[in-house]
Amino acid sequence: MQVDRSTVRYPSRRGDDAELRNAIKRVSRERRRFGCRRVHVMIAREGFAVNHKKVRRIYTEEKLQVRRGGGRKRALGTRKPMVLPDGPNQRWSLDFVSDALTDGRRFRILTVVDDFSRENLVLVADTSLSGQRVARELDRVIAERGMPKTIVSDNVLCAE
């Protein structure tokens, strides 16, 4: 096995990056959510004339990568089918339906249905339904009909 003498005797020309390394660490500590690119911008603002590739190399060597967020936590356990209610006012289902007018404006409809009698208790349409408005409508129908044992909502975001 032979090795070229120029390779064996190659002196590294890489300088000491201690000052730059400390500056990158300091910026990463101050701005924890900044990734490599934003750290490079901050370093350049401080007066360091440094290539983005060098910043990335030091950033990864120092293990300063921003951790990625975890996914949505799903409910644990087995799902059970809902038991049918025995009579009226046992369970109400709350849902939102949305559509668009001919001029393109969106509107939403709040529906509350008694699951036993399939009676529509609330039907409110508006361009925006705030949480306060929903609570007010529920309070109104509860004053009229009495409090149900449970109120269920599908809680699924619609793809609009």
UniProtKB/TrEMBL annotation:
<dbReference type="Pfam" id="PF00665">
    <property type="entry name" value="rve"/>
</dbReference>
<dbReference type="InterPro" id="IPR001584">
    <property type="entry name" value="Integrase_cat-core"/>
</dbReference>
<dbReference type="GO" id="GO:0003676">
    <property type="term" value="F:nucleic acid binding"/>
</dbReference>
<dbReference type="InterPro" id="IPR025948">
    <property type="entry name" value="HTH-like_dom"/>
</dbReference>
<dbReference type="Pfam" id="PF13276">
    <property type="entry name" value="HTH_21"/>
</dbReference>
<feature type="domain" description="Integrase catalytic">
    <location>
        <begin position="84"/>
        <end position="160"/>
    </location>
</feature>
<dbReference type="GO" id="GO:0015074">
    <property type="term" value="P:DNA integration"/>
</dbReference>
<protein>
    <submittedName>
        <fullName>Putative IS3-family mobile element-associated protein</fullName>
    </submittedName>
</protein>
<dbReference type="InterPro" id="IPR012337">
    <property type="entry name" value="RNaseH-like_sf"/>
</dbReference>
<dbReference type="InterPro" id="IPR036397">
    <property type="entry name" value="RNaseH_sf"/>
</dbReference>
